[in-house]
Design goal:
The structure holds two protein chains of two kinds.
Chain A (H helix, E strand, L loop, with lengths): L1 H9 L7 H12 L15 H9 L1 E2 L18 E4 L7 E3 L3 E5 L2 H13 L7 H9 L5 E8 L5 E6 L4 E11 L4 E9 L4 E11 L4 E9 L4 E11 L4 E9 L3 E10 L5 E10 L4 E10 L5 E10 L4 E10 L7 E10 L5 E10 L5 E9 L3 H9 L4 H17 L6 H12 L2
Parallel strand pairs in A: 1-7, 2-6, 5-7, 6-8, 7-9, 8-10, 9-11, 10-12, 11-13, 12-14, 13-15, 14-16, 15-17, 16-18, 17-19, 18-20
Antiparallel strand pairs in A: 3-4, 4-5
Chain B lengths: L3 H5 L16 E3 L6 H10 L4 H16 L22 E3 L13 H9 L13 E7 L2 E5 L2 H6 L3 E4 H7 L1 H7 L10 H9 L4 E5 L8 E7 L10 E6 L4 E9 L6 E4 L2 E6 L4 E8 L11 E12 L5 E8 L4 E4 L2 E4 L5 E10 L4 E4 L2 E4 L5 E10 L4 E10 L7 E10 L5 E10 L5 E10 L2 H9 L4 H12 L1 H4 L4 H15 L5
Parallel strand pairs in B: 3-7, 6-8, 7-9, 8-11, 9-12, 10-13, 11-13, 12-14, 13-15, 13-16, 14-17, 15-18, 16-19, 17-20, 18-21, 19-21, 20-22, 21-23, 22-24
Antiparallel strand pairs in B: 1-2, 3-4, 5-6
The chains are: A alpha/beta, B alpha/beta.
C-alpha cells in the first residue's frame, strides 16, 4: 500500500492524469507483485523494497550527458527535459504524439496488462506525470539516428515513459540510454509500435552507479513485415529488471535480440522476455548472455509462445552464462510453448566459466592470466556490443566502463 | 504433400489391456480418515512405527494444498470418493503359486506376464501387484541364493522391518509433496528390493502393476536399496481396465545407491488413457526419486510414457556422493486428450557429479505434452557436469508441446548445457521413404522410432521391443 500512498500524497487526486488514475486503481488491488509468481519468484524482495523506498520525484536534477555528440545529425532527446520536438524535413518527420493519440494507445495497452507480468508498467504509468512521458510519431526515410536519455536523480524514484510509433516503410536507428545515479531508482517503460514494413535498430544501454536500481520494461508490437533488432546491455545496478514483451501481431515479422547483463558485488540483474507469435512465418533469433561475479545473481527467463495460427514460425533462443565466482548464482529458464505443428523452434542454455583451454593457449603465448581472461571476456561481450547501434567512439567508452574495477 | 486425413487417423487401435477380471475382492469403504489408515495398517499387520509414519503423513497431507503449477487441466479429485484398499479375496495364506486363484494367473497371462512355473523361462523375476496387494513374486529362491531380497513391501515390513524403518521415507519424505504425503498415508503394496554388498543381481527384476477395480485408487510404494558395489536392473509395467471414471494412481518410488552401486530403473507405462473424447483414464501422479549416496554410485531412469489421461511425474536424482552419476531417458507420447507434464530433477550436491537428460516428447491429437526439468548445481559440486536434450515432435495442428527447463548454478567450476528443439515429421524424409515404396504409416512409425532411438537404446532388450511396438500402435491413424 505504501507506494500508492506515496504517489497520492505527492499529488492531489485532481492533478493525476486519467492514465495515472487507471493504473493506480489497478495497483490498489495488489500493490506489490505476487512473490510466488514465475516472474517475481527469484527477485530479491529486499532489493525491490529498497527500490520503492525512495521518495517519488517528478523533477529531475540537472544532468550531464556522459559523452559528447559525435555527429551533428544525431538527434538527442532527454525525457523530462526537452519534450518539445517537431521536425519536418524533406525526407522525414518526427512529431510529438497528441495527447489523445497517446492516451488512446496507452489505454489500449493497459487493457492487455496482466498484474504480475506488467506490474512494472503499472507502477511506471502511475508515477509518470505528463512531463515525463515522451510520445513520438516517426515517418519517412533517411532519418538521422536518435538518442534518448532517461536518468534518475539521487535519493529519489523517477519514472520515465517513452512511446514511439514507427510509421509504414520507415527505417530508424535508436539508442536508448538509462542512467542511474547513486542511491536512485529509475522506472522506465517503453512502448513501440512498428507499422508494416518498418524497421528499427534499437540499442538499450543501462548503467548505474553505486546502489542504483532500475525497472526497465519494453513493449513492442510488430506489424507485418517489420523488423526489430534489439541490442541491450545492463550493468552496475544494485537491482535491475529488464522485461521485454514482443508481439508479432500478424506474423511475417523478424525479431533479433541480443542482450547482455553483467553483475558484480551483491547485485541482482534479471532479464525476462516473452515473445508471442500471432501469425505465420514469424522469425526470432535471440541470445542472452549473463556474467555473474562476486556474490551477485543473474537471472534469465525467456518464453516463446507459438499458438496454432503461427505456422512456419522459426524461433531460436540461446542463454549463455558465465559464472565467475563461488558465491555467485545464475538462474536460467528458457521456455517453449508450442501448439502450431509446422514450426522450427529450438532453445539452448549453457552455464560455465572461462574456457580453460583457450586461457592456456594464450598463456603459452606469453599473455598473463589476467590479460587472457580480459581478452576472453571482451570477445564474449563483443558479439552483443557490436549489435548495439552506436558509433565506434562510444564503444570505446563502453569498453572502458566494462573493464572498470 | 502429406495427406492430412491419412495422418489424422493414427490411434485407432483399441486398448487391448482394457478388460476387467471378474474376481471377488475385499474392499473397504470409501473415504479417507485416521480410522481408514488404522484399518489398512491393521489389515496388513504392520508394526507401530509404520502406523505412526502413516498417521504423521496423513496429518501433513491434510495441511497441504493440491499443486496447480503443472500445465495440466483436470476436474477436481474428490479424495473422499476413493476406496483406499482393495484386494482379491484369498482364503488362506498361500505358500506356492499353485494356490493363487487361477483367474488371477489368467489375468496376468493375458497381459503377457509369466507367473506360472512353465513360463518362467524368460529369466526375469516378476512381482505382480493386483489393485492394492502383491499376488506373487517369482524366482525368489534363486534370488535368495545370491542374498537378493525381492518381495512385496508388505512382506518386507514383516520380515525385514529394520531395513524398512531405516530407509523408508529417506529419499521422498512424507512431507515432500501433496501426492507423496497421500501415498505415505495410505500406500498398500509395492516392491522391495535389497541387493547386498558386491552382488550383481543375476536377473532383471520386474514389477507389474494392474488396477482392476474402477473406484479404488492404487497407491504402491517401491523401495530399492543397492549396497556397496552391487548392481540391479529393475523394470516396471502397468495396465488398467477401461472405465469411464478416472482412477487415481499416486505411487512413490525410492532408490538408494551406496558406494559404487548402480540401479537402472525402467518403466513402460501403459495405463488406460481414456477414450477419444477424454472420458475415463488413469490420473498418474507419481513421485520417483533416487539418492546416489555413495561415491561413484549411479542411478539411471528410463521411461516410456504412453498411457494415462494425466501424467505428473518427475523421476529425479539427488547426487550426493562424489563422482556419482544420474541419468534420465524418457519418451512421452500423448494422443487424443491426454496430458503429460513430465521431466526430471538433477540435484548436484557432491563434487564431480554428472548427469544426462534425454527427453523426447511426441504429441498428437489434441494432447498436451510438457517437459519440465530442474538442473541445480550447489556450491560444493565442483567439477560437475550436466547435459540435457529435450526434443519435441508435433503431429497434427491441435497438439501442443511445451518445454520448461529450470537451470540454477552456484558453482563456477561446473558445466551445464541444455538444448531443446521442436519440429514435426519432416515431409522430405516422409517423401523419401514413400518414394522407396514404404507405406505411409510405416514410414511415420519408422521416423518416430528413429526420433526415440536415443532412449530406446537405454531400455532392456525386451522392453525396447515392447516400447517400439507400443508407440507404433498408439500412433496408428493419428499422424497428420
Amino acid at each position: 500500500m505504501e507506494i500508492i500512498e506515496k504517489i497520492k500524497t505527492n499529488k492531489s487526486d485532481n492533478n493525476l492524469t486519467e492514465i495515472q488514475k487507471i493504473c493506480l486503481h489497478q495497483l490498489q488491488s495488489s500493490p506489490l507483485p505476487n512473490p510466488k509468481s514465475e516472474q517475481w519468484r527469484l527477485s530479491n524482495k529486499s532489493k525491490l523494497s529498497t527500490l520503492l523506498d525512495y521518495s517519488v520525484n517528478e523533477k529531475d536534477s540537472k544532468f550531464d550527458i556522459p559523452y559528447p555528440k559525435n555527429s551533428q545529425s544525431t538527434i538527442r532527446l532527454i525525457i523530462g527535459e526537452n519534450c518539445q520536438i517537431k521536425l519536418i524535413e524533406k525526407n522525414y518527420s518526427i512529431q510529438q504524439l497528441s495527447e489523445d493519440e497517446l492516451q488512446k494507445y496507452i489505454k489500449e495497452q493497459i487493457s492487455f496488462f496482466k498484474q504480475n507480468e506488467n506490474w512494472s508498467d503499472l507502477l511506471n504509468l502511475s508515477l509518470s506525470c505528463k512531463n515525463n512521458i515522451l510520445g513520438l510519431k516517426i515517418n519517412g526515410s533517411k532519418i538521422p539516428p536518435i538518442e534518448i536519455f532517461s536518468h534518475a536523480s539521487s535519493n529519489s524514484l523517477n519514472a520515465k515513459t517513452l512511446v514511439i510509433f514507427l510509421e509504414k516503410n520507415c527505417d530508424l536507428e535508436l539508442l536508448q540510454v538509462n542512467l542511474g545515479k547513486e542511491n536512485s531508482s529509475l522506472s522506465q517503460s517503453t512502448f513501440f509500435c512498428l507499422k508494416e514494413n518498418s524497421s528499427l535498430n534499437h540499442g538499450v544501454v543501462s548503467y548505474g552507479k553505486n546502489r542504483s536500481n532500475l525497472l526497465n520494461s519494453l513493449n513492442v508490437i510488430q506489424q507485418k513485415n517489420s523488423a526489430y533488432n534489439l541490442g541491450s546491455l545492463h550493468f552496475k545496478f544494485n537491482y535491475a529488471r529488464f522485461e521485454i514483451s514482443i508481439k508479432q501481431s500478424a506474423g511475417n515479422a523478424k525479431t533479433n535480440i541480443k542482450g547482455m547483463q553483467i553483475t558484480k558485488k551483491d547485485e541482482q540483474i534479471s532479464t525476462y522476455t516473452k515473445i508471442e507469435f500471432n501469425g505465420p512465418n514469424g522469425f526470432l533469433d535471440q541470445i542472452n548472455k549473463s556474467l555473474a561475479d562476486d556474490k551477485s545473481h543473474a537471472i534469465f527467463e525467456g518464453s516463446i509462445i507459438v499458438p496454432k495460427i503461427a505456422q512456419k514460425t522459426d524461433a531460436s533462443q540461446l542463454s549463455r552464462n558465465l559464472l565467475l565466482s563461488n558465491l555467485a548464482q545464475i538462474d536460467t529458464k528458457p521456455q517453449l510453448e508450442i501448439i502450431a505443428d509446422d514450426v522450427k523452434c529450438k532453445h539452448g542454455a549453457t552455464i560455465s566459466q572461462l574456457n580453460e583451454e583457450e586461457l592456456f593457449y594464450m598463456r603459452t603465448r606469453g599473455i598473463t592470466l589476467t590479460e587472457a581472461s580480459k581478452l576472453q571476456l571482451s570477445s564474449y561481450f563483443q558479439e552483443i556490443i557490436s549489435f548495439i547501434p552506436i558509433s565506434k567512439d562510444k564503444w570505446d567508452l563502453l569498453d572502458k566502463l566494462l573493464n572498470e574495477n | 504433400m502429406v495427406n492430412e486425413n491419412l495422418v489424422k487417423d493414427v490411434v485407432k487401435e483399441p486398448y487391448k489391456y482394457g478388460f476387467v477380471t471378474d474376481i471377488e475382492t475385499e474392499k473397504i469403504e470409501k473415504g479417507l480418515n485416521e480410522d481408514i489408515i488404522k484399518l489398512i495398517s491393521q489389515k496388513k499387520e504392520e508394526p507401530k512405527f509404520l502406523l505412526d509414519f502413516r498417521l504423521k503423513a496423513f496429518k501433513k497431507w491434510q495441511k497441504m494444498k493440491e499443486p496447480d503449477w503443472a500445465a495440466l487441466g483436470y476436474k477436481k479429485i474428490d479424495y473422499q470418493d476413493i476406496i483406499y484398499y482393495s484386494a482379491p479375496k484369498q482364503k488362506e495364506k498361500i505358500s506356492s503359486l499353485d494356490e493363487v486363484d487361477p483367474k488371477l494367473l489368467e489375468t496376468f497371462d493375458k497381459l503377457g506376464i509369466p507367473l506360472t512355473e512353465q513360463k518362467k523361462l524368460t529369466n526375469v523375476a516378476v512381482d505382480a501387484v493386483f489393485d492394492s496387494v502383491s499376488i506373487a513374486t517369482t524366482f525368489r529362491e534363486e534370488l535368495a541364493e545370491h542374498g537378493v531380497i525381492f518381495c512385496s513391501i508388505s512382506e518386507a515390513v514383516k520380515n525385514h522391518a529394520d531395513l524398512i524403518e531405516k530407509y523408508l521415507g529417506t529419499v521422498v519424505p512424507a512431507s515432500d509433496n501433496y501426492f507423496a504425503a497421500l501415498n505415505s498415508a495410505v500406500f498398500s503394496d509395492g516392491s522391495f528390493v535389497y541387493i547386498p554388498k558386491g552382488v550383481t543381481c543375476p536377473m532383471d527384476l520386474s514389477s507389474y502393476f494392474r488396477i482392476n477395480s474402477g473406484d479404488s485408487g492404487q497407491f504402491e510404494r517401491t523401495l530399492i536399496i543397492a549396497e556397496e558395489s552391487s548392481s540391479v536392473s529393475y523394470l516396471e509395467g502397468c495396465t488398467a481396465p477401461m472405465f469411464d471414471t478416472n482412477t487415481l494412481h499416486a505411487a512413490v518410488v525410492e532408490l538408494i545407491a551406496l558406494d559404487d552401486a548402480s540401479i537402472k530403473y525402467s518403466t513402460v507405462q501403459n495405463w488406460y488413457a481414456g477414450d477419444e473424447e477424454g472420458i475415463g483414464g488413469i490420473f498418474n501422479f507419481v513421485t520417483k526419486r533416487g539418492k546416489c549416496l555413495g561415491k561413484r554410485s549411479k542411478i539411471s531412469w528410463s521411461q516410456v510414457e504412453t498411457g494415462s489421461a494425466i501424467t505428473w511425474k518427475y523421476p529425479s536424482c539427488l547426487l550426493l556422493g562424489e563422482e556419482s552419476v544420474g541419468e534420465f531417458y524418457s519418451v512421452a507420447l500423448t494422443n487424443n486428450l491426454q496430458q503429460a507434464d513430465t521431466g526430471t530433477k538433477m540435484i548436484h550436491i557432491g563434487p564431480k557429479t554428472k548427469s544426462t537428460i534425454v527427453s523426447k516428447g511426441i504429441s498428437a491429437g489434441n494432447s498436451k505434452n510438457s517437459y519440465r526439468g530442474l538442473v541445480k548445481v550447489g556450491t560444493k559440486a565442483t567439477g560437475s557436469r550436466n547435459y540435457s536434450q529435450c526434443d519435441s515432435m508435433l503431429i497434427g495442428d491441435q497438439a501442443s508441446a511445451n518445454t520448461f527447463p529450470y537451470i540454477k548454478s552456484q558453482q563456477p567450476n561446473s558445466e551445464i548445457e541444455h538444448e531443446a528443439s521442436t519440429c514435426r515429421i519432416s515431409e522430405d524424409q516422409l517423401f523419401y521413404l514413400q518414394s522407396r515404396g514404404i507405406e505411409f504409416e510405416e514410414a511415420v512409425s519408422m521416423m518416430v522410432s528413429g526420433f526415440c532411438r536415443d532412449v530406446f537404446n537405454q531400455l532392456p532388450m525386451e522392453f525396447a521391443a515392447e516400447a517400439d511396438k507400443l508407440l507404433a500402435l498408439k500412433l496408428e491413424g493419428s499422424v497428420g
